[in-house]
From TrEMBL, chains A, B:
Name of the featured protein: glutathione transferase
Gene Ontology CC: cytoplasm
EC number: 2.5.1.18
Record keywords: Transferase
Keyword Lyase: no
Domain GST C-terminal: from-to ranges: 86-210
PANTHER family: GLUTATHIONE S-TRANSFERASE RHO, GLUTATHIONE TRANSFERASE
GO molecular-function terms, A-Z: glutathione binding; glutathione transferase activity
Amino acid sequence: MKLYHSNGSPNARRVRMLIAEKGLDVELVPVDLGSREQHSNAYLAINPRGVVPALVLDDGTVIGEAPTIMRYLDDASAPPSLYGTTPAEKAVVAMWERRMETEGFAAVMEGVRNAAGGLKGRAVSGLHGYEQIPDLIDRSKQRVANFYDDLEAQLGRSAYVAGDRFSAADITALATVDFATKAFSMPIPEGRSAVKRWYAVVSSRSSATA
Amino acid sequence: MKLYHSNGSPNARRVRMLIAEKGLDVELVPVDLGSREQHSNAYLAINPRGVVPALVLDDGTVIGEAPTIMRYLDDASAPPSLYGTTPAEKAVVAMWERRMETEGFAAVMEGVRNAAGGLKGRAVSGLHGYEQIPDLIDRSKQRVANFYDDLEAQLGRSAYVAGDRFSAADITALATVDFATKAFSMPIPEGRSAVKRWYAVVSSRSSATA
């Protein structure tokens, strides 16, 4: 298997962290986002959506979309699973993983894409051009602030995002916090003691360096 | 099992269509979005995110998020699956289902939520209030137009969204087209013959009335 990725892509990092957690043998193939290699004909022949990450299986099957790749790699590999054992357990983890994405990760991404000078005319990922909307920067900040509030409440109820065990939901939550901190100047706010306790634990896992 | 839903919710319709396709025995419990019952204390005790749909299993486990519920119901029920048989097949369907959502369904939703008079101050679903951003209406229209272009290309390559068989990806695509038509005045554009051929086929399935 090959994972087309970029060190600078937080979506690719979600997949790399899962690979590291599970100790999977996946070849990493860098795609240079700086020169827009993801929009080159060579890369579009692999992933027509023009984004990283993309996983190419040994039979040539291409799987795109970070959470889909994460779930596939977990489903196709030996236990322990980062989603759970039963369909219901997997659904609860997938639900939380998705909430971390839609309420956290996607909010940071929207803020960054509508703010960054280098992304003018490319405010939505993919091949289609869209102008930036400056009002989205503030809305994204509000959403990320609310994400931290909600995460504090959830981590007050359980040790990890989806319950008592580390799961794929923690991977996306950690990627979100680091992305918000580095690219959107929104680190964990003061007073969020449950988030800080959780962050100390999950960021010290060896997968966090992936 | 009980599905908390609303007839007016296109996200709930995605789940109802999957239930109908698989012939599952799920009790439908209506939630009145008009009176904001989804934000009532009684409903928040079921789904703290304050949105429909939510699936409650017989043991009390709550599963939220439309695509997560769809995948759970498919995983937990007898074949034939609406995702496929192998992990790779399931991943390819899940990838396409997600693309239909992020590039189509979510674009329509964003346009509607930022345009509708009744949704002032509630431009993002959930419990947190966000003001509408009028510039998002035009951007959403551009995104939906591009969605139709891309769907035309894909359906020129295969009979259904994710290949030669009807799948969960077609459910989300059909829900998107009907939502765009009814709530965003963006029916299938002229000249999209592959989309129209596909639409005639999938909209005639009995599940389309769900």
